[in-house]
Amino acid sequence: MSMFKIFDISGSAVSSQSQRLNTVASNLANVDTVAGPDGKAYKAREVTFQTVLMNTGDGAPGQGVRVSGVTENQAPGRKVHDPANPSADADGYVTYSNVNAVDEMVNMISASRSYQNNIEVMNTAKTLLMKTLQMGQG
User: Fold this and answer.
1) Mind listing the pLDDT tens digit for each residue in 54-108?
2) Are the C-beta atoms of residues 62 and 9 closer than 8 Å to each other?
3) 122 in helix, strand or coil?
4) SS3 label, residue 35
5) Which of 6, 64, 75, 86 has the fewest Cβ atoms within 10 angstroms?
6) What is the pLDDT of residues 61-76, one digit of tens each?
7) How far apart are CA 45 and CA 109, in angstroms?
8) pTM to 2 decimals?
9) Does residue 92 contact residue 82 with C-beta atoms inside 8 Å?
């Protein structure tokens, strides 16, 4: 496999993890949301990844990753008894989003680490390519 294809493979992972981080940020921003744009409580979104075969140019297999979809978590939202709230139902309960802040923080840390690791792979490949060029000059 060509050293240059490492950038394509790691780049696909960086792009996917970036989208995952954006989704987590959106979820965290809506932890205490009562009503979304459709009048219902916000539902947490989850990113799904898919392996992608990449052409390496020399016949060697290479795999990258891409986001295959972003889905809504269908778990019920958190219900709080607050009859004075204008969003309360007939029984006095307010339905908040189904976002779990702790789970989202763990997801954010995982995505951030994956992002950093792939950046490090690209930096290492760049360093190796630079060293190779320097050897050719000497």
Assistant:
1) 776 666 677 889 999 999 999 998 899 999 988 888 888 888 999 999 999 999 9
2) yes
3) helix
4) coil
5) 86
6) 778 899 999 999 999 9
7) 16
8) 0.84
9) yes
Counts for the chain of helices (H) and strands (E), in that order: 2, 4
Task: Compute CA 97 distance to the chain's CA centroid, rounded to the nearest angstrom.
Answer: 19
CA-to-CA distance for 11 and 5, rounded, in angstroms? Answer: 9
107: its two tokens: 């997801």
pLDDT of the residue at 59? 65
What is the predicted pLDDT for the residue at 58? 65
Helix ranges, the chain (H): 5-29, 101-137
Coil, strand or helix at 2: coil
Residue 27 and residue 19 in contact, taking contact as beta carbons nearer than 8 Å: no
Cα angle at 96 between 90 and 98, to 5 degrees?
A: 130
Name residue 9's amino acid. Answer: I
